Each structure stands twice: as structure tokens, then as C-alpha cells.
């Protein structure tokens, strides 16, 4: 059974940083592309970043040069380092993977950027 559990969200001031974690079980993160998405209140869920099996990374334009996706194969965990946070980054953040032909999502972690 594939499970993803996000953590690390919270309240941060504009310009601050947070690191989100996604602990994965049931698959090895080293052989799947892993994604982060976010959903702001009243808006659709948007893609944020991807790390491929070869560790190639891609980012949405809105977070490029501020966010970094990475993984620790030994801990089977994916991370999202978020720097220079803005109020518009406020959202619930989800990690996701498509495995065995099906999408899997975590429960999400709330990030609020406010002074």
C-alpha cells in the first residue's frame, strides 16, 4: 500500500523559509517521479515541482529560484525547501506520485505566509 505523509507546514512571515517533508511508504522514491502540488483557498490544485528518477527537477514559474525539491533515498522522503515566501504561497501543500498506474496523494500540510 502506497502512503504519503506530509509535514513541516506552519505560519511564517513574508520572506521567511519552511521545509516540507513527505515520508513515503510502499514504494521507493528513488524509482518514481515525485511531485509537489498546492491548493489555495477557492482555487484549483496547482503543480509546484517535480523530481524525476534521475533527480532532474522542474518547477512552476511562480516558485522557480525560490523553492527546491529534493529527496533522501535512505529515508525514502521527499522535501520541498521554500525560501523567500510570499503571501501568495499560502496554500495546502500535497506530495503526489503515480505508482502501479494510480495516483497517490498525501493528506496535505498547511502553509500560511502572513505578517
How would you explain this protein's 3D organization?
- With 115 residues, the protein is mainly β.
- The protein has strands spanning 3-7, 10-12, 18-25, 34-39, 45-51, 57-59, 67-72, 77-82, 91-99, 102-105, 109-113.
- The strands form 2 sheets. Strands 2, 4, 5, 6, 9, 10 and 11 form a 7-stranded mixed β-sheet that branches. The chain has a 4-stranded antiparallel β-sheet with strand order 1-3-8-7, with no helix packed on it.
- A hairpin with a 4-residue loop joins strand 7 (67-72) and strand 8 (77-82).
- The N and C termini lie far apart (40 Å).
Give the gist of this structure.
The chain has 115 residues and is mostly beta strands. It has strands spanning 3-7, 10-12, 18-25, 34-39, 45-51, 57-59, 67-72, 77-82, 91-99, 102-105, 109-113.
The value of Rg in angstroms is 13 Å
Mean pLDDT: 97
Number of helices: 0
Broad shape: globular
The percent of residues in helical segments reads under 10%
Question: Main β-sheet: number of strands, strand sense, barrel status?
Answer: 7 strands, mixed
Write the element-wise H/E pattern from the N-terminal end onward: EEEEEEEEEEE
N-to-C span: 40 Å
Strand content: over 45%
The low-pLDDT segments are none
Structural class of the secondary elements?
mainly beta
Number of strands: 11
Amino acid at each position: 500500500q502506497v502512503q504519503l505523509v506530509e509535514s513541516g507546514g506552519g505560519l511564517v512571515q513574508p520572506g521567511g523559509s519552511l521545509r516540507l517533508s513527505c515520508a513515503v511508504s510502499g514504494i521507493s522514491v528513488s524509482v518514481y517521479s515525485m511531485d509537489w502540488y498546492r491548493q489555495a483557498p477557492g482555487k484549483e490544485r496547482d503543480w509546484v515541482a517535480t523530481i524525476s528518477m534521475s533527480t532532474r527537477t522542474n518547477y512552476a514559474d511562480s516558485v522557480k529560484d525560490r523553492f527546491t525539491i529534493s529527496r533522501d533515498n535512505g529515508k525514502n522522503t521527499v522535501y520541498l525547501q521554500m525560501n523567500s515566501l510570499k503571501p501568495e504561497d499560502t496554500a495546502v501543500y500535497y506530495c503526489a506520485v503515480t505508482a502501479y498506474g494510480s495516483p497517490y496523494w498525501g493528506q496535505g500540510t498547511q502553509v500560511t505566509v502572513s505578517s
